[in-house]
Each structure stands twice: as C-alpha cells, then as structure tokens.
Amino acid sequence: MSNKLYFTPGPSGLYPTVPFHIQNALNEDVCAISHRSKKYEAIHENTVQNLKELLNIPDNFHLFFTGSATEVWDRVIENCVEQHSYHCVNGSFSKRFYETAKELNKNATKIEVEFGKGFNADDLNAPIETELICLTHNETSAGVSMPVSEINKVKDKYPNALIVVDAVSSMPYPNFDYSKIDSVLFSVQKGFGMPAGLGVWIVNERCIEKSKLLQTKGISIGTYHNLPSLLSKGINNQTPETPNVLGIYVLGKVAGDMLSIGIDNIRKDTETKAKLLYEFIQNSTNFEIFVNEPAHRSQTVIVANTVIPSPQINKILEPHNMAIGTGYAKYKEQQVRIANFPAFSIDDVEKLIEKLKL
Ligand SMILES: *Cc1c(COP(=O)(O)O)cnc(C)c1O
Fold it and tell me: For residue 223, how far is its CA from the centre of ligand 1 (angstroms)?
C-alpha cells in the first residue's frame, strides 16, 4: 500500500481508518445489499446519527445524501428560491454557485471581492427581496474563510432570508450555530478524507416548507432529490435512488472514529497544524502568506505565494512520498494550496514543513 501523503485540497489523502472500513464493508456485503432492506436502513441511520452528534446538529434539521456538493448547489437553488438568490463571491467555487443560480434562470445577485479577500456580515448588501443568501465558509480556490462569528450575524441582518453555507472544504472543522443558518452542504473527499462521490445536505424545516410552497405555486423544484422526495424517503432511513451505500457506510464509520477522538480535539489539532504552517510560510523566503487579513485566513486550506513554481515543489516532494496542491487555475504555478484536514497528524505536517525548507 502506498503511504504517500496527499496534502491536496480535494481529493485529499484518505483518513487513516478508511481502508479498514472499506474492507469491513466488503466482508459485510455492504455493496450487494438492497437499499430497501433493514440492513441498509441501519447503515443510513447510523451515519445520520453519528454526523448529527459529531457536528452538533439539532433535531429539527434533516440530513440527506446526494451525489456531490455540486449537485446540492443545484438542489438548494431549485428548492429554496422562487426568484431571488444572493451570493458572496470571492473565488471559483462561490462564483460557480452564483452561476448555477443564473443558469437555473433565477434572478441571482452577488457581491464580489478580489481573489484573496473575504467577507464580514457588514459587507453584505442583499436586496430586500432576497430569498436565499449563499455563503461559502471556506473558498477553496483562495484559502479564504468567512469566520463563523460573521456568518452568525447574517441572520440578524436578514431574518426573512434562508441562509445556506457551503462548507465543503472545511467540515468538520467549523462549529456552526445552527440557530443562525438554515442549510449546510459538503462532500466527503476533503475534510472527511474519503473517496469522492457523496454529498451531504443539511436542511431545517424552513427549507422544506419553502420547497413545498414553490410546489404549491406550480413552480418546478426539479424531480431528482427535491426536498419533499428526500424527506419522504429519509424519514425511513432511505433515499429516493439507489445510493452510494459504500460511501454512506464509510462516512458513518469515519464520523464514529472522529467522535471517539472528540470534535474539540480535532478542531484544536486543526488550529495547531494551521499555526505551524502559517508560521513556517511567514518565516520562509520562498513562500509568502496569500491572504492578508488574518481573520479571513483558512484553517483548512492554507494558500501561499511561491517563488519556486508549484509543480517543481511537487517534484522535490515526490521522493519523500508527499504532494501538495498547486494554485487554482491561473494561479497554478505561482501559488501552493496545502490541505490541513483531520486525516493529517501534527507529525505529518511537521514532516511536510521539514521538506519545504528548500
Ligand atoms: C470541492 C468544492 C465543491 C465541489 O464539491 P464536489 O464534491 O466536487 O461536488 C464545492 N464547494 C467548495 C467550496 C469546494 O471546495
């Protein structure tokens, strides 16, 4: 088995227990059972419960499984917006979320800031008629986060709008206050260190009611994975389609492993590793911290400008069985992105830093 450490921000290195859980899944015939069986329902229920406990999600929220986070962008716009969505755009992922709403023929508006900059609640200027505010907790392309304390202020400013948070490249790190948000989405190949191909969509009753209201008005909320269909199956620990049973099984097990470590310890370790990385970058002559505002620096995807082109850095890391992410799109050569997910120990990060002392 390869022991290469993929500090890439998605897909990323596997969480250490994942191979063990996949092997057990095969031993238990998880990939062959019917998704309408009691055995599947037990797997589904365990994963939902472990995630709810790990992430401290209140009982009035539902947790549904989708094909990816990209899918949830579509679904949340279809199910929660009649006309007006509002988007905070500061990089490729938040921009794509905005474009999704436009392509679905919604009247989407945005506030956009320069690459490397972030948002505070005061910056938002959503039109009064806004139905859904789309926030990206961690903009993966730029390594910029919106602090949870700022996300929490948005609801007070816009009490009538639904608030959805894309937390794909930060979960399970952020400690959200679920009384201040209505929906969260993520996928599993980043912070959960799993094979890609599974999304998680968390919604409260307000989102469900909105989708039903749109349906009553004769507005299409789509057919695949609309909220009423997810809910009617989800109540019985099932999904409308034949789901990614292996992914759902492994996610429940990984969430269970994280529960035994304790989410507070995982969060503390994330901050310790981020501090090591940022301090190293700050003191290095080859690298420079990209995000100027310390409060907006991501704890889970660390982005730096680099003097040595990033593909060359990966050539240097290759014999040491390590890889980091290059910059995003046009920043490919001139930036590096280092994933700081729970799969990596403090030891792993220290090893990487040693090898980055070029
Ligand atoms: C990776 C990513 C996505 C897309 O996730 P998929 O699982 O590929 O659909 C969406 N938003 C953010 C912030 C991401 O980092």
Answer: 22
Question: What pTM was estimated for this model as a whole?
Answer: 0.98
Fold classified for 5-13+263-355: Aspartate Aminotransferase, domain 1 (3.90.1150)
Q: Which of 39, 32, 126 is nearest to 84 (CA)?
A: 126
What is the CA(93)–ligand 1 centre distance, in A?
7
Q: Which residues of 133-149 are buried (b: 16+ CB within 10 A; e: fewer)?
A: bbbbbbbbbbbbbbbbe
CATH fold group of domain 18-259: Aspartate Aminotransferase; domain 2 (3.40.640)
User: Residue 139: enclosing H or E segment and its boundaries?
Assistant: strand 138-139
Per-residue pLDDT of the chain (358 residues; tens, 9 = 90+): 568 999 999 999 999 999 999 999 999 999 999 999 999 999 999 999 999 999 999 999 999 999 999 999 999 999 999 999 999 999 999 999 999 999 999 999 999 999 999 999 999 999 999 999 999 999 999 999 999 999 999 999 999 999 999 999 999 999 999 999 999 999 999 999 999 999 999 999 999 999 999 999 999 999 999 999 999 999 999 999 999 999 999 999 999 999 999 999 999 999 999 999 999 999 999 999 999 999 999 999 999 999 999 999 999 999 999 999 999 999 999 999 999 999 999 999 999 999 999 8
Listed by start position, the domains of the chain span 5-13+263-355, 18-259
> What is the whole-number distance in angstroms between the Cα of residue 188 and the centre of ligand 1?
9
Q: Which residues line ligand 1 (CB under 6 A)?
A: 10, 68-70, 93, 136, 140, 166, 168-169, 187, 196
Instruction: Count the neighbouring beta carbons within 10 Å of the beta carbon of residue 198.
Output: 24
